[in-house]
Amino acid sequence: MQTTTALEYPALVLNRSWVPIRTTSVRDAFCLMIRGAARAVEPETYRTYDFDSWTEILAKEHEPHVRTVRLRIRVPEVILLTMYNKVPEREVVFSRRNLFKRDKNRCQFCGKRPGTSELTIDHIVPRSRGGKSTWTNCVLACVECNARKGGRTPHEARMVVRSQPGKPAWKPHFTIRVGEFRQSWKDFLSEAYWNVELQE
Ligand SMILES: [Zn+2]
């Protein structure tokens, strides 16, 4: 385990009330701990440690760690902020995943739920006519309805969009990139898990 790599590892940041609010790098996590703004959380025991006491726990051989001349410092995977207690609001990202979630895997023309592999994203005003990829112009359509509609507007195709599409009302807490997720975060994310976007 190279020190530089371990410092770039992601760490989950909890606010003072243990609500996950973002991720950061281990490097930043250490900075926050040294400043006294955060404590490392031992994910199994939920015990918290300031920087000095954290450096006294020896990293096991297989665990990610940062090596100094004297110490092998275990990499914190979860940190708890000591002062900050807000939950920042974030906008829902327009993404394929979120569009499927908003439309509940349902074709917005015929209302069927044929399974995700049989669903496509339809541009209400077709892209060939300047239609944008936005919350208000995109809906799920089954393969059949999509073929029927073709490059036309619903009006031209004599089809009806079941409900006025818009931006989802839910607010994600933060974004976790695929590949960044760590097993030890699971317990801390369980409550907020469905609000977390896995950005691809
Ligand atoms: Zn359909």
Characterize this entry briefly.
The chain is α+β, with helices and mostly antiparallel strands and 200 residues long.
Question: What keywords describe this structure?
Answer:
single chain; 200 residues; alpha+beta; DNA Binding (I), subunit A; 2 domains; two-stranded antiparallel sheet; 20% helix; 22% strand; elongated; binds zinc ion
Structure description:
The chain has 2 domains: 3-89 and 172-199, no CATH class; 96-157, DNA Binding (I), subunit A, CATH 1.10.30. It starts with a helix and ends with a strand. By secondary structure, the chain is of the alpha+beta class. A 5-stranded mixed sheet has the order 2-1-7-3-4. A two-stranded antiparallel ribbon has the order 5-6. The chain has a two-stranded antiparallel sheet with strand order 8-9. The protein contains 7 helices and 11 strands. The structure holds zinc ion (ZN). Zinc ion binds at residues 107, 109-110, 112, 141-142, 144-145.
Major β-sheet strand ordering: 2-1-7-3-4
Portion in beta strands = 15-25%
- Give me the Rg, rounded: 23 Å
Distance between the termini: 26 Å
* Estimated structural class: alpha+beta
The number of distinct β-strands equals 11
Q: How do the helices and strands follow one another from N- to C-terminus? A: HEEHEEHEEEHEEHHEHE
Please report the number of helical segments: 7
What is the residue-averaged pLDDT?
A: 87
Report on the biggest sheet: 5 strands, mixed
Helix content: 10-25%
Low-confidence region ranges: none
**Total separate domains:** 2
Distinct small molecules = zinc ion
Spatial shape? elongated
